[in-house]
Amino acid sequence: MKSKYRNIFLLFGLAAIVTMLCSFDMEYDELLANLRRAGIWLPAVVGLWILIYLLNSFSWYLIIRDGKKGTPVPFWKVYKLTVSGFALNYATPVGLMGGEPYRIMELTPYVGASKATSSVILYVMMHIFSHFCFWFFSIFLYLALRPVDVAMGSMLGVVGAVSLLAIYFFMKGYKNGMAVRTLRLLQYVPFIKGWAKRFSESKRESLERVDSQIAELHKQRKSTFYASLSLEFVARIVGCLEVYFILNILTTDVSFSSCILIMAFTSLFANMFFFSPMQLGAREGGFALAAGGLAIPGAFGVYTGLITRVRELIWIVIGVLLMKVGNSTSANKMK
Description:
Elements: H1 3-23, H2 28-38, H3 41-65, H4 75-91, H5 99-111, H6 113-145, H7 150-176, H8 179-186, H9 193-202, H10 204-220, H11 222-250, H12 256-271, H13 282-293, H14 298-322
């Protein structure tokens, strides 16, 4: 990628850092006091994401390899782009608007534009798909552990129906490809429909090639498909340890299964506010509501949201710094 484009993405990341520093709804002395209260659990929470990003990177790496023994992209590069890509996604509203173009542009010198685009689209689909699988799994976990009244039963029914519908459409997309179909849908969206029409017409052959690569993974590389999905799902379960670590700062009367339910509800609530950059306020509110719904003091949920926000800030800084590291590659010629 040219340095000027990388610097544009870098500015997005720096903007996210400044926004997050200004978004803490408390005095910095109070913030520092809360961080000191976390003690060794704060490094544990931050360090946990080394493993989570490792699982995410393996999931994407499997897609890039596409069943082959080797790949021109070293794994450390995939890990770096994974961390930086997620950092950039925090910087933009609507999500998936900064990190994915960055990943495509950085990966293109290694595998070519078509392969880079299809692998990134496939990984994004897998990442979102695992969200719905996680929510669907959490419904049955809740039914096994908690009493269900009419209101909660109705909500679980709606979430289950939406998750099943999403899973169905994702499976259809994997079988037939989604690039061309997505561009067609964008042609009905105000403000960008003109661009979408021009892009789909000028890049139709490339988009069809991307769709064929997406469909090929599901049809001919089922082991790769399910291995990648499993890694993403496991990453979501491992991510629930973050809530478990934080709540153990405040109480020992919390189970890991409850933390899975808290994380499921929080992620569902936060994704309802996908248009908010870095989901400011939505995640903290989701933690408080989820904790209260499981008979855990709502203040615990607010504290969990605070520590999570600090962890995000630390990893955004790491991701932004990584954008300027290891960019002198021997893969500057197109494949």
